[in-house]
């Protein structure tokens, strides 16, 4: 049977709902208004007229950026949780995959936090609510990755991801980074295969998105690894093997020693070449990170062009994340009265 | 002019307000609720408007009020409704309110923090008490065995991990604490993974529930006892407990000490409870003070906010504000009064000024409906708000709507129930209305209570006409059929045919409605079908003709007299000659052919078809009786005339109007050049002048406007006061758009012409085809009425009469009693609700499509005055924000 014919039986409601949510994403005109704000209260007043509505109405008047951040995030979380609760398989599994990335972030956040000697009950509220799970609380016991596996991850969906880097070594910052990247690599590959297995339009859209995510990680890992003690062999293990760069591009990346060589690798891939060409570190130039974000937004918007597929759910979460980053950027600029770079947000629609 | 027949006359005016008087004036206008302000700052961001800081202060106050309201509701205190309407306080009082709210808010928050701390303390103490109790019993029961049990439990694991059994030298330590019940499985699991099962964990549920100090929710907790050996395990256990939101309590090792501690805890709990009670008392006091006032406060703050929101729509000059607003002309005196009160309140010395403006913008449509008409007006407006000045179908709908409904719903019994239901809602109007229904369906019914009552009333009437109540007929006045039959005749056959020639008293008929004898006739349906079908056509044609006639009033009002000749008359001819004639034939047949000439009665359908095919068979000797023969003298001539009149009116409809418009446009174009250099670019613009001079001039104009009364509104020539440069400019400014409006934008003639021709073609086709399909559409009156009658008859025969035929006085009574329940329920559910809804929908369609398409445009927009009434109706602040 054509999956399109039966898609709406199980997932039609949620897709409709989601497309409704999507139309609430701030437009360019909204951003133009936002950057004119003088104070955070102005920002609040303007956001009131958008889909965010009264989300800040119950906050006492001297607003802070962190309050806005919390509330923005809370709104996204409520939406995603609502969809997750109403979802049927395989969409439910798909949405869970989206949440896994937040779980990884939380695990890493807590480990880093405990490494710096912060008490766990102070760190827990900082976790992203989409990625909390009960076992997280025991994370301060994890001195080694074995302990991390045993105490925290063993019966969570993340457990298979960590199997590549279990060791009895004490956790230090380097280790944490490796764990993060390994987790993420395995996660991306797993998610990629999951989407592939779903097939149809979902696979079309999601594989492209995840491949981009994988490639971005590979580039960033490479660039960030210069000047650290990470060896090339270790580095190559961290590259997610589901992107467009796999296999030959990753091999080339693994041999890079400086930024120019990375750029040379990107030359082979037209979509990345453009990103590298247009970025720079001079004032006025966009950073490579921003270019990646821009490209991601472009991909995610494209995801909405197809119906009867799950890619839109992923795309919505990513776009919303970008929107939150944008608003927070503007809010920070407003709050710190540093307006010179206020317009370097990444417009979505 | 009747206020329901057409929209109230509306005027666009500018109001010039002194800055200091603006607040009070707007407040008064809000109480009046007859003025719709236009947003003059559309392109200004919300946060860049003039009074944004005041609005922000209001929002801050709202936040505090919301918090207080939430606290009041959390304590399950009621917020009393207030009946009087507190006025918006003066801007000065806003500060007082702010201070008061601030104080209240602070006080409440302080009390709450204290309370929370106390409650937290109390919770911990109670938990400690439970824990101590639990530990005490546990040790009492197992005391000596613990070491042994632990060994047994952990033995296997330890061996697996360490290989050999460790020494028993390390003393047994234990932790006691509580953990939320839902965390228990995770807690157990994590504990096991972390310690590899080398600790001895016991968990027991605490029977008592605890109260969450912050939210006040009920919490279930479990108590845990962990026995461990050695320092390392101790740390691990402690970390797990911390991570899982467990609370560890320092429980001493010896029984004696525990006993003492338990005692101490008990006394402290008693103390704490005293303090808590006092603290609660204080909180109650604070809240009850707010409880009485909070509704009034809410309304006040909302009013202030609404006023500033409105003032944000005004244009700001040096020391005055300019507002543009629509209002009904009739209300001008009220508005003036309101403004003067506002001035008096604010102590402003310079009066505000109302100055009429002329604009080519369409005014909003406003009907001053009472609650009876409102429902019907809403029915009309759901189709489209009437274009300003056009005839409002609502007053006619008041009668035609329930009537057409009743034709389909014709049953006196069902109608009576419906009438009672409507009447009940009307009698209980006040108490239901004040309760504010949350159920959307119930709200819809309540909103249409007058419609329901009217529909019920009319259904009783049509029910009487159909002689139908719960599908039974009543023989009240005595049937006029006299079947004088002998016994043998009765016995001879099952079916006896009554010949109306002999068996009916032909000089008179049954007094009202259908003769009850038809109830028992086999051909009842045939008889009723013929009656109802013809009736449907008659009613439909009358309804449509009425609609066409109403269009005359529109043409007269909009002064397009030509339309009477090129639109109304051809339409009337078309409809009248084709379908009016059909109706006439129906009446002719009814009146002229009785039982004695039954065989000569013409077949109307055949005759009507033949009219279009020009087929006439005239009687040879005038003696022959055949349904297909012409049935009156000169029938063919009449029908030819009718037919050609109708056909000829089509080209008139099609061509006359465009030709007329093109011709007049040409002649006008010859007369005047198409462009006036004096035409202003922006119509509503008032030349910015030195404010003082302008103001004086405006006052003069205002004076003139007052003197002139409504006339100066009409033609847009305010009397020019003492002539002054600015006054002329203003007057001229108003004149110009009026002219160019009358001229009707002759810049782009060709496009408009072709557009108009296409429009005309579509309209003609729509009307002509529409007449035919609409007439057929009215047959739904017959169809639904038939369906309703049949359904109720089925229900009678299949359900209730079954019960009635069961033999036995006593058994039958019980059976009937039970069966009546089903019958009554089915009657209400199927016949009243379902059939009622379907008949309602069909009536709606008949009005929207068949009736209103004949004259109604519905392209206006509703008048939405700035009014405080909405604020009064709301229950709490949540409504405003949600």
Explain the overall architecture:
Chain A: It comes from Candidula unifasciata. Chain A: This is V-type proton ATPase subunit. Chain A: Pfam families: vATP-synt_AC39 (PF01992). Chain A: Belongs to the V-ATPase V0D/AC39 subunit family. Chain A: InterPro entries: ATPase_csu/dsu_sf, ATPase_V0-cplx_csu/dsu, ATPase_V0-cplx_dsu, V-type_ATPase_csu/dsu, V-type_ATPase_csu/dsu_dom_3. Chain B: One of its GO terms (cellular component) is plasma membrane. The complex is a heterodimer of chains A (349) and B (882). Chain A has 349 residues and is an all-alpha fold. Chain A is 63% helix and 0% strand. Chain A has helices at 3-22, 28-34, 40-48, 65-86, 91-115, 120-123, 145-153, 173-198, 200-225, 232-238, 248-254, 259-266, 270-278, 288-303, 311-335. Chain A is globular and about 50 Å long. The model of chain A has no long low-confidence stretch (mean pLDDT 85). With 882 residues, chain B is an alpha+beta fold. Chain B has 28 helices and eleven strands. In chain B, the strands form three sheets. In chain B, strands 1, 2, 9, 10 and 11 form a five-stranded antiparallel beta sheet that branches. A four-stranded antiparallel beta sheet of chain B has the order 4-7-3-8, sandwiched between helices. In chain B, α1 crosses α7 (255-311), α1 (19-32) packs across α8 (332-346) and α18 runs antiparallel to α20. The longest helix of chain B is centred in the first third of the chain and has 57 residues, at 255-311. Chain B starts with 9 loop residues before the first strand and ends with a helix. The model of chain B is unreliable at 160-169 and 674-747 (pLDDT under 50). Chains A and B meet through α3 of A and α2, α5 and α6 of B.
């Amino acid at each position: 049977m054509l999956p399109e014919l039966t898609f709406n039986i199980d997932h039609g409601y949620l897709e409709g709902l989601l497309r409704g949510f999507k139309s609430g994403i701030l437009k360019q005109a909204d951003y133009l208004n936002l950057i004119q704000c003088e104070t955070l209260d102005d920002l609040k007043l303007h956001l009131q007229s958008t889909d965010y509505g009264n989300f800040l109405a119950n906050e006492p008047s001297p607003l802070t950026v962190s309050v806005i951040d919390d509330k923005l995030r809370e709104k996204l979380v409520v939406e995603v949780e609502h969809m997750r609760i109403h979802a049927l398989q395989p969409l439910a599994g798909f949405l869970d995959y989206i949440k896994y990335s937040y779980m990884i972030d939380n695990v890493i956040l807590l480990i880093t936090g405990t490494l710096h000697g912060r008490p766990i009950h102070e760190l827990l509220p900082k976790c992203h609510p989409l990625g909390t799970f009960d076992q997280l609380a025991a994370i301060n016991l994890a001195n080694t990755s074995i302990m991390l596996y045993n105490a925290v991850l063993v019966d969570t969906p993340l457990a298979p991801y960590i199997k590549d880097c279990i060791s009895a070594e004490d956790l230090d910052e380097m280790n944490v980074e490796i764990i993060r990247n390994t987790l993420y690599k395995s996660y991306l590959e797993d998610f990629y295969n999951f989407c592939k297995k779903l097939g149809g339009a979902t696979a079309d859209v999601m594989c492209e998105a995840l491949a981009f995510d994988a490639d971005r990680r590979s580039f960033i890992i490479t660039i960030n690894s210069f000047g650290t003690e990470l060896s090339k062999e270790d580095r190559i293990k961290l590259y997610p093997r589901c992107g467009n760069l796999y296999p030959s591009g990753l091999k080339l990346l693994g041999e890079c020693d400086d930024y120019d060589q990375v750029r040379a690798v990107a030359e082979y891939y037209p979509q990345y070449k453009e990103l590298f060409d247009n970025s720079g570190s001079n004032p006025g130039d966009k950073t490579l990170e921003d270019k990646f974000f821009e490209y991601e937004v472009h991909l995610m918007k494209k995801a909405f062009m197809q119906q009867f597929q799950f890619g839109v759910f992923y795309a919505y979460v990513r776009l919303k994340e970008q929107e939150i980053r944008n608003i927070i950027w503007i809010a920070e600029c407003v709050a710190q009265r540093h307006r010179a770079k206020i317009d370097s947000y990444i417009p979505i629609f | 002019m009747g206020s329901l027949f057409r929209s109230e006359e509306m005027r666009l005016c500018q109001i010039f307000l002194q800055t200091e008087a603006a607040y009070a004036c707007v407040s008064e206008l809000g109480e009046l609720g007859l003025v719709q302000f236009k947003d003059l700052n559309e392109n200004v961001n919300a946060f860049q408007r003039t009074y944004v800081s005041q609005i922000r202060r209001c929002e801050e106050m709202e936040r505090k009020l919301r918090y207080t309201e939430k606290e009041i509701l959390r304590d399950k205190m009621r917020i009393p409704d207030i009946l009087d309407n507190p006025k918006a306080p003066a801007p000065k009082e806003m500060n007082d309110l702010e201070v008061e709210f601030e104080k209240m808010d602070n006080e409440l928050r302080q009390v709450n923090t204290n309370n929370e701390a106390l409650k937290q303390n109390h919770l911990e103490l109670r938990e400690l008490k439970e824990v101590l109790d639990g530990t005490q019993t546990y040790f009492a029961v197992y005391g000596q065995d613990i070491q042994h049990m632990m060994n047994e439990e952990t033995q296997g694991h330890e061996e697996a991990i360490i290989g050999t059994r460790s020494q028993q030298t390390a003393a047994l330590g234990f932790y006691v604490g509580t953990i939320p019940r839902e965390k228990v499985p995770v807690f157990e699991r994590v504990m096991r993974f972390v310690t590899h099962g080398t600790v001895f964990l016991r968990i027991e549920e605490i029977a008592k529930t605890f109260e969450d100090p912050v939210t006040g929710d009920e919490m279930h907790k479990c108590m845990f006892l962990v026995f461990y050996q050695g320092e390392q395990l101790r740390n691990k256990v402690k970390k797990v407990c911390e991570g899982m939101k467990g609370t560890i309590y320092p429980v001493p090792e010896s029984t004696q000490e525990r006993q003492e501690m338990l005692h101490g805890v008990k006394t402290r709990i008693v103390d704490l409870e005293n303090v808590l009670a006092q603290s609660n008392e204080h909180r109650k006091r604070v809240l009850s003070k707010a409880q009485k006032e909070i509704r009034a406060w809410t309304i006040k703050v909302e009013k202030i906010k609404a006023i500033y929101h409105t003032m944000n729509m005004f244009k700001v000059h040096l020391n005055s504000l300019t507002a543009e607003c629509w209002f009904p002309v009739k209300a001008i005196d009220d508005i003036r009064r309101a403004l003067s009160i506002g001035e008096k309140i604010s102590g402003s010395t310079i009066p505000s000024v109302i100055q009429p403006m002329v604009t080519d913008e369409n005014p909003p449509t406003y009907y001053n409906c009472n609650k009876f008409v409102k429902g019907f007006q809403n029915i009309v407006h759901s189709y489209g708000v009437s274009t300003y000045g056009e005839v409002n179908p609502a007053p006619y709908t008041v009668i035609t709507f329930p009537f057409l409904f009743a034709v389909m719903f014709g049953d006196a019994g069902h109608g009576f129930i419906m009438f009672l239901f409507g009447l009940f809602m009307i009698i209980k109007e006040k108490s239901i209305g004040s309760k504010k229904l949350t159920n959307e369906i119930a709200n819809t019914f309540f909103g249409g209570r007058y419609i329901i009552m009217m529909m019920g009333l009319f259904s009783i009437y049509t029910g009487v006409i159909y002689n139908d109540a719960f599908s039974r007929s009543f023989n009240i006045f005595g049937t006029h059929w006299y079947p004088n039959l002998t016994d043998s005749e009765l016995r001879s056959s099952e079916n006896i045919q009554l010949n109306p020639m002999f068996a009916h008293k032909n000089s008179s008929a049954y007094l009202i409605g259908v003769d009850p004898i038809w109830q028992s006739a086999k051909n009842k349906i045939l008889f009723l079908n013929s009656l109802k079908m013809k009736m449907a056509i008659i009613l439909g044609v009358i309804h449509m003709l009425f609609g066409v006639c109403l269009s005359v009033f529109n043409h007269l009002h909009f002064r397009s007299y030509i339309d009477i000749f090129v639109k109304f008359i051809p339409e009337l001819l078309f409809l009248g000659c084709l379908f009016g004639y059909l109706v006439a034939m129906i009446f002719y047949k009814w009146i002229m052919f009785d039982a004695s000439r039954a065989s000569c009665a013409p077949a109307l359908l055949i005759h009507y078809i033949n009219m279009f095919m020009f087929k006439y068979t005239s009687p040879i000797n005038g003696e022959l009786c055949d349904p297909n023969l012409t049935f009156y003298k000169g029938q063919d001539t009449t029908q030819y005339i009718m037919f050609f009149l109708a056909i000829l009116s089509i080209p008139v409809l099609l061509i006359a109007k465009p030709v007329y418009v093109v011709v007049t446009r040409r002649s006008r174009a010859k007369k005047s050049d198409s462009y006036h250099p004096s035409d202003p670019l922006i119509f509503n613009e008032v030349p910015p002048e030195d404010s003082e001079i302008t103001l004086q001039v405006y006052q003069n104009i205002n004076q003139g406007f007052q003197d002139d009364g409504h006339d100066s509104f009409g033609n847009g020539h305010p009397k020019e006061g003492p002539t002054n440069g600015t006054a002329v400019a203003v007057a001229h400014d108003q004149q110009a758009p009026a002219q160019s409006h009358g001229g009707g934008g002759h810049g782009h003639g060709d496009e408009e012409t072709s557009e108009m021709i296409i429009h005309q073609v579509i309209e003609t086709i729509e009307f002509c085809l529409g007449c035919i399909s609409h007439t057929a559409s009215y047959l739904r009156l017959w169809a639904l009425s038939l369906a309703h009658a049949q359904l109720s008859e089925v229900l009678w025969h299949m359900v209730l009469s079954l019960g009635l035929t069961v033999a036995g006085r006593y058994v039958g009574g019980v059976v009937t009693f039970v069966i009546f329940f089903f019958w009554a329920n089915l009657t209400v559910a199927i016949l009243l609700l379902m059939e009622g809804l379907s008949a309602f929908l069909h009536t709606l369609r008949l009005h929207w499509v068949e009736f209103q398409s004949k004259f109604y445009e519905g392209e206006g927009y509703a008048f939405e005055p700035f009014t405080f009434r909405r604020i009064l109706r709301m229950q709490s602040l949540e409504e405003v924000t949600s």
